[in-house]
Amino acid sequence: MELLPSGRISDGCELHPGLIFKDKEKKRKKREKNGKRGEREEKKRKKQKEKQKEREQGGKRILYRRMPGNGDRLSILGLGCMRLPVKEGKIDRERAKSQVQYLIDHGVNYIDTAWTYHLGENEPFLGSVLADGYREKVKIATKLPSWTVKSREEMDRILNSQLERLRTDHIDYYLLHNLTGVLWDKMKDLGVLDFLERAKADGRIINAGFSFHDSVEDFKTIIDAYPWTFCQIQYNFLDEKNQAGTEGLEYAASKGLGIIVMEPLRGGKLTTLMPPEIKTIWEEAEVNHTPAEWALRWVWNHPEITVVLSGMNEESHIEENLRTADEAYPNSMTEKELQLISRVEQKYRTLMNTGCTGCRYCMPCTSGVDIPTCFEVYDNLYLSGNENEGKLMYAAKAGGIIRGDIPGYASRCIQCKECLEKCPQHLNIPELLKIVADKFEGPDLETWKAAAKQTFRVE
């Protein structure tokens, strides 16, 4: 025991004054530490009581994150309006209005729509709903349809029409819709950067971003081309290596962009496509969550993500999502839980016919085949069992309709086999492409191409 020079210890009975001081100081610090812990626990209890009171009173119950570029406080759960409830082919206005306003009343403050949703009826409907005292409570996100725009003047015409439809004088978050590498080049040539700058300067839009469906290389190119506030990507535990993927997510975050996630449930397929093998793994979990809750928690576990969009259109799904969004903190999943998700992801891979992970090492194909897209559509058909949807998406995606590109059909394969040595999964790509072509490229392909052009509003 170290003694200070100002005193002594005699016969073990007289304590050195310095030791007495040290002992008192130690006790004081311990009291302070316990006091601070008590304060934290008291604050936590108070917060829990307040949250419970809000719930009992029908108040807000949701978590929020900040948009990095502007500090906006956004609900981690956003409403994607593409899948509002419908009746007889049109928006079920009464039910949809009730759902939208209920979500806003319970804390959702990010609402995503687009020029093309519900054949152009989505924006006017949302405008009427928000005009009923709700506009100032939310941030509106809508999109410029990049695949249909043909001139710089048309960009202004569409934006001005959107402002009228939405009954507002500004769009909080404005996106270039469905960008690919090809569409980005087209939009740049048409003067989209000048359009964005002028629209921000005159206050018609506040923040500029883009939604994306292409390779991570093209994603990075677009990120670096303009000072975007945010981007919107497809992301879920099956798409870590697909499109922008985790690599793109981390790149965008490193550049200071806010990240909006779409398709966290892969269009509902992670909940509706439930092979017995997948169901068994979920049932082994120590915590009882639904597949939808697991999938959402996995996305929200990433601190880079600001908002996750959900196309919830069932009241039970709305309640479940609100409950999950009240508890899903970043970096909160345990190692066991992450391992569970990994097992589910790996099992899905084994159930997919092609075994393709979407890594795109095989690209570009010298014959112009969009190999990952051909396999993605084929695997989705196998998982969903919906042949009509599969044929529509093959015509739209592999046919280049969504991308605004030349067709990348499986039948373009000339069996050169250059892709074989590039594939880390060692797939027999040429043989698999034959199977895909046989499945989708029958005599009805032209019919499905026409349907895809109509569905995605491509002239």
From TrEMBL:
Residue ranges annotated for the 4Fe-4S ferredoxin-type domain, each copy included: 404-432
Composition-biased stretches (Basic residues): 25-34
InterPro entries named in the record: 4Fe4S_Fe-S-bd, 4Fe4S_Fe_S_CS, AKR2_Oxidoreductase, NAD(P)_OxRdtase_dom_sf, NADP_OxRdtase_dom
Coiled-coil regions, chain positions: none
Recorded GO MF terms: oxidoreductase activity
PROSITE patterns: 4FE4S_FER_1, 4FE4S_FER_2
Residue segments, region Disordered: 20-60
PANTHER family the record matches: D-THREO-ALDOSE 1-DEHYDROGENASE, OXIDOREDUCTASE
Protein name: Aldo/keto reductase
Organism in which the protein naturally occurs: Methanosarcina mazei SarPi
